[in-house]
Design a protein that fits this description.
Blueprint: H1 7-37, H2 41-65
Helix pairs in contact: 1-2
């Protein structure tokens, strides 16, 4: 039925998910900062979040390609 995954495979799946979640949180914080203070740092946080999501997607693609 189902194949048992070893710890390396579980970790290799968890890493891109964690990176993407960090990016989503950064975007949410950036939007909140921008809406409340109108500070430009919000745009920086949104940009960093987008970059983190892209990195997570890249790592995820490399993991699934194996």
């Amino acid at each position: 039925m189902g194949e048992k995954k070893d710890k390396h495979e579980e970790l290799s799946i968890a890493v891109p998910i964690a990176i993407e979640l960090t990016g989503i949180i950064a975007i949410a914080i950036g939007v909140a900062v921008e809406l409340t203070t109108k500070a430009d740092i919000g745009y920086i946080a949104i940009s960093i979040g987008g970059i983190l999501i892209a990195i997570g997607e890249f790592v995820w693609a490399k993991v699934l390609r194996r």
